[in-house]
Amino acid sequence: MSGRFQDRGVVVTGALGGIGLAIARRFAAEGARLTLVDLRTDEGEVVEALKALGATRVLSVACDIADEAAVDRAVEAAIAAHDRLDVVVNVAGQMIYKPIAELTGGDWRRLLDVNLLGAAFFTGHALRRMSPGGAVVNIASIHARQTSADVAPYAAAKAALLSLTRSAAIEGRPLGVRVNALLPGAIDTPMLWASPNIASGVEVLEPGEVGQPDDVAGPALFLASDDARFVTGVAFEVDGGRLAKL
Fold this sequence. Notes:
alpha/beta, Rossmann fold, 7-stranded parallel β-sheet, 9 strands, 42% helix, globular
């Protein structure tokens, strides 16, 4: 039985680990033609595992998403390999931990480049090259809504990503391209446990507040699917209710 994404061209950034890999696995199980975008390529176990799950084709592309020319090349490779571009999921991100008083211009530029401009470059290709029915899903963060000390560039970039999502949804609507965002909370990935704020107790996680990458993958596939054909411009929190409490 074919899945919701049978033979559709899907690009996932940050696809070789954490949330990105969980999302890629879900798309594979629904028959997508996958392009895995990450800083490194994988032509081995990950690619073969995704094919075994049901992906009709899998391409792995090394790309620094902060480099506009590298993004252009990645998208060209995806379309050449799969003949189409139907879905882009912008997952790749980076975080550093410094007080604002210690941040350099280089710190700000790198975090904004990776967490905002990378998604903007892929979104631009989506609006130029997708046919009606296409979808973009941006993986933001609850830091776009409420944040903690020492992560200002990350939080600012993720807040700007929500604004980009709204603007792209407006511009995508007459093209038949939907753009939505997810705001994960604490998800069990290496990025979460690398946080000195958690290690020091500045940021406290209560039992039940840590989700799994698959908890983000399910909503991402819904927003990318035809089931969400009347949903665009939304920012959907996936945080186990963490932001709901007073």
